[in-house]
Each structure stands twice: as C-alpha cells, then as structure tokens.
Design brief:
397 residues; Aspartate Aminotransferase, domain 1; Aspartate Aminotransferase, domain 2; 2 domains; 7-stranded mixed β-sheet
Length: 397
C-alpha cells in the first residue's frame, strides 16, 4: 500500500536546530543515544506539503496574511470525511499549537485557584499549563489492569461534584495510546455537564488511530456535549509539521468562542504562521488522506516488529498495542529496577533516549514512552540494543 512512499528513509536531522537530535546532550547527558522520545517523526514531511510551502516562498513578499476561506474549508472537509463530524465555519479558530491553546483556554474559561482535572499518567504539559496559570491540579488517575487502562468514573464524578471547573481530556490518550469509546466519552460528557465542568479535549493525535479503533470527538456526539466542549487539534503530528507552530480549536458554543478569541487577542498570538496555513491546506486533502493511510500501515508494521521481538526475547518487558498515537507505553517494572537504575541502563548502557514514564506522573514510574515514528531500520537497532542490555536480567525477573 505504501510502495509509492519511501518511509524507510532516515533523513539526517542533525545540525538543523532539531530538538530531537541536536539537544541529546542536554536532555540525556549523552550525544549518541538513538532519540525516540519527543513526538515528532523521523519520517519526511510529505512532498505535497513541502511543495505548498515552496510555492508560497516563491512570492517575493512574506508579509501579514490571514487565514482564507480555503483554510477553514480544508478543516471542515477533513473532519467530515475522516471523522464524520460536520463542523461549521464559525466554530473554527486558530491556536499557535495545542499546548498554547490549552494555556489560552485555561485563562479564558477559569479563574486563579480553580480546580482542573487531568487523568494521569498523561502528557506532561497538562501539569504545567494548569500550575503555571495559578490553577489547582486534581488527579483522576487512570486505572491500569494488565496494561489496559480505563477511567475511574466514580472518582471523576466525585472530583466534578467537588467544584472542579474544567477537565482536560487526552483523546487519543497520550501516553497510554487509548482511544476512548463512544460509551466512555458519553459517561465523561454526562458527568461534566451534570456538575458544570467544561471539557477541553486535546485531540492532536486524532488522525493517528489504528483499526479497528475509531476516533470520536466528544463534541460530535450531541449538541449538548458540543456546547460544553472546546476541542484542540492540529495537522502537526499527522504530517510532521510541528515546527510550524500551528493548530486550531473547534468551539461550537458562541459565548465560549467569544471568550477564547478575547484571550487569543490579549496574548497577541492570533496572527499565526503563513506556512502553517499553507501546509494545513495541502495536508487536509484526499492526497493527504492517501498518504496518512499508508503511513498508518507502516507504523502498524513497526509495532508488529516490537511486539514480536519483545515477546520472543524480552518477555519481561510488557506493552499493549496502542489504539492511537505512534508512541508505545512500555512496562519495565518486572525487572525490579529503581527509576534511576532503569533510566541509566537505557541511556548509558543501551544508548537509547526514551521518555521516562515518571515524566507523565507518579503512576508512570517503571514505564517508558517510545516513539516508533521512524524507519524500520531504526526500530530494529533500538530492539537490538534493548535485547543486548536487558537479556541478562531476564532470568532474574
């Protein structure tokens, strides 16, 4: 299926001010680790996206620009075609990346000291965006059973009833790779509406979902949910354009949209990036969908490779196949290592740069988040290093 695309390339990203490669010494204290941590891809940005940027660069002026009707229409088409959600032009607004959008939403819709619910282990900026804006974090920890995660709805209801003002939802969930079902989303929506808790849904990985799982936007389920939900998304993860710092929000509630726009204007961040606009218009197209479907097949094969190798050679290392995202949430706890010992073995002995699980909350201790959005050659090299480093521990675990 992906024969027309060369996903086996290993583009040299060094000396491009690349966070993933050029900051290895800063992040890991070692410059020669294989970096498989931050969520961008070692897969070339698709040529049709690059071509759209080059075309705009051919014009001699890169002055102030606005997002034209084609920009919103591309988002509307993508959501209708890819996610079966018919959104309206007036519901769409810009955000300079989803994390920036979360900060804007927290300031627009809550007050200092307000309680905001997150669901650990979860994407670490969820913690900092709440705390840096002077709000109070409350944890609705996911329940893990044999690597399968579910929501603690009883606790969620209690926290919502206790005065929380907002829930920040990760869907698909980063880092555990869970794609929430319609039933689960309905329960979340009903609890939050009952207790007047605004739902802010981070859906940046919504396009990166593996069949038979199906991404569903909570706001798409009914109008009542739509009026109580602010959705953030972007083409950045899907098409490897995170460096363009562009995203969008979908806000069906006109009053919430008015508040969001006011915060965006107050921050001076609403102008956006000319190349982010052009890239999205090129990405959210039938050509972009064809490319994405091929990419997902390639990632499935990378996951197959990891699963086969770990089951055969390192059975103490456990992970469940992600339903969404290109990140693996991998459990090393059977080895009985401390957090420090595990991280040192991976970095110093194996030469592997993963995300330490504790970065996603205390319930992530003993886990690692591994980015498999790269060539099969890189995945193979990573696995060889894991086997060499951890095989001696197998008989003791």
């Amino acid at each position: 299926m992906y024969s027309k695309y060369n996903f086996d390339q290993n583009p040299d990203r060094e000396n491009t001010s690349c966070v993933k490669y050029d900051l290895r010494n800063v992040i890991f204290g070692k410059a020669d680790v294989i970096p498989m941590w931050v969520a961008d891809m070692d897969i070339p940005t698709p040529s049709f996206v690059i071509d759209s940027i080059k075309k705009r660069c051919n014009h001699p002026v890169l002055g102030y620009t606005f997002r034209d009707k084609q920009y919103n229409q591309a988002i509307i088409w993508w959501y209708s075609n890819r996610h079966q959600w018919n959104i309206k032009d007036s519901w769409i607004e810009f955000c300079p990346g989803v994390v920036s959008g979360l900060n804007h939403a927290i300031r627009a819709f809550t007050q200092p000291g307000d309680k905001i619910i997150i669901q650990p282990p979860v994407y670490h900026p969820f913690y900092s965006t709440v705390e840096n804006n002077g709000r109070k974090l409350v944890h609705n920890n996911l329940i893990e059973e044999n690597g399968i995660y579910r929501i603690n709805f009883e606790e969620l209801e209690r926290l919502a009833a206790d005065g929380a003002k907002m829930l920040i939802l990760s869907n698909p969930h980063n880092p555990v790779g869970k794609v929430w079902t319609t039933d689960e989303l309905t329960k979340i929506g009903n609890i939050c509406i009952k207790h007047n808790v605004l739902i802010v849904s981070d859906e940046i990985h919504s396009d990166l979902v593996f069949k038979p799982a199906k991404h569903v936007s909570l706001a798409s389920l009914n109008d009542n949910f739509a009026q109580h939900t602010v959705t953030f998304a972007s083409a950045s993860k899907t098409f490897n354009i995170a460096g363009l710092s562009s995203g969008f929000t979908i806000i069906p509630n006109a009053e919430l949209m008015k508040k969001y726009k006011a915060e965006l204007e107050a921050s001076g961040a609403g102008m956006g990036n000319i190349f982010g606009t052009e890239a999205l218009k090129a990405a959210f197209t039938p050509e972009g969908e064809t490319w994405l479907n091929a990419l997902l097949q390639y990632f499935q094969e990378n996951i197959d490779l990891v699963e086969l190798t770990l089951n055969k050679k390192l059975p103490s290392i456990k992970f469940n196949r992600p339903q969404g995202t290109y990140m693996l949430w991998v459990d090393f706890r059977k080895y009985g290592l401390t957090t420090k010992e595990l991280n040192e073995m991976l970095i110093q002995k194996a030469g592997l740069g993963f995300n330490a699980g504790e970065d996603f909350g205390t319930s992530g201790e003993g886990f690692q988040r591994i980015n498999i959005a790269c060539s099969k050659a890189t995945v193979n090299e990573m696995l060889q290093r894991l086997v060499k480093t951890f095989s001696p521990l197998e008989k003791h675990s």
